[in-house]
Amino acid sequence: MNLAPEAILLVGGKGTRLRPLTVRTPKPMVPAAGVPFLTHQLARARAAGVEHIVLATSYLAEVFEPYFGDGSALGLHLEYVTEEEPLGTGGAIRNVASRLRSGPEDPVLVFNGDILTGLDIEALVGTHRSSGADVSLHLTRVEDPRAFGLVPTDATGRVTAFLEKPQTPEEIVTDQINAGAYVFRRSVIDSIPAGRPVSVERETFPELLSAGAHLQGMVDSTYWLDLGTPHAFVRGSADLVLGRAPSPAVPGRRGDRLVLPTGRVAPGAKLTGGTVVCEGAIVGEDARIDGSTVLAGAVVEAGAVICDSLVGAGARIGARTVLSGVVVGDGAVVGEDNELRDGARVWCDAVLPAGAVRFSSDQ
């Protein structure tokens, strides 16, 4: 029996909901707490005893290997498999099967590349082994499950159904949702149809269940966040810095702020709420930044106020400009004395003149 399971990381998505962050960078490579988000996932897998990971890439696939190489810097052996055409979650898993080393009965971990979680990976593998399941799923409980597929289980944790996003209160039969981490028996991966798009959530899992396979759920309601939206991504980065989300890969002490070595912050600036200032970024005098990320080479001028926002690489935020819940793309310029709020997005290389957008005090 393979004691240290290998893993597949699904990192092929286009990250459409995260644009403009993902116009030039695949979602798993967008920095969270100062390093590409994928670094946190790899480091947590390694800490749980995983040594071999296959990355299933597609969108902007060429950026992963130059950054991570063979994985030796993280104590891992990494391999890369690129989908020429998007194959969905199940198709991506099947597409990398030839790179796995496990025997037919051995466990293989599978992680979605956009989930920040405190999941006890070893406990999930242990549950899989002790239950004798064909597939084991990490489940988490959420207050409002309407945006998710529901996964009810019986008293022993065995999955009884996969229910699409509920539309009415009567359809909400559980608060348990699929949290995006699985352990597959290797032979189940080999049974997924090859060479075509397959969704594990909508096709593989329901078909296994109807065929009488054993699917086991393990509820682990530690920290869990889907980083699919800009607001969630910014929050996840801040939670990593604050120590609310666990990761051995945060490059510095946890606390209110993380300033990477070549970032420069004026003495009168105030950084709070898990704010990150990346390499070569500059924060000017009297700027106030809360719960936000300033990516590499960006400039925040004097007196700017930034809250729950992300400033892209090489972007510039003018003096006294206010950003709240905003994403500014790489290389964009937001001139001085602007005020942007509530989900506004400034595209890469866009230029917003001084004073172009203002909110009146009664809004």
UniProtKB/TrEMBL annotation:
Pfam families: GMPPB_C (PF25087), NTP_transferase (PF00483). Residues 255-358 form the Mannose-1-phosphate guanyltransferase C-terminal domain. SUPFAM superfamilies: Nucleotide-diphospho-sugar transferases. InterPro entries: GMPPB_C (IPR056729), Mannose-1P_guanyltransferase (IPR050486), NTP_transferase_dom (IPR005835), Nucleotide-diphossugar_trans (IPR029044). Signal peptide: none annotated. Residues 7-239 form the Nucleotidyl transferase domain. Gene3D superfamilies: Hexapeptide repeat proteins, Spore Coat Polysaccharide Biosynthesis Protein SpsA, Chain A. Belongs to the transferase hexapeptide repeat family. This is NDP-sugar synthase. The lineage of its organism: Bacteria, Bacillati, Actinomycetota, Actinomycetes, Kitasatosporales.
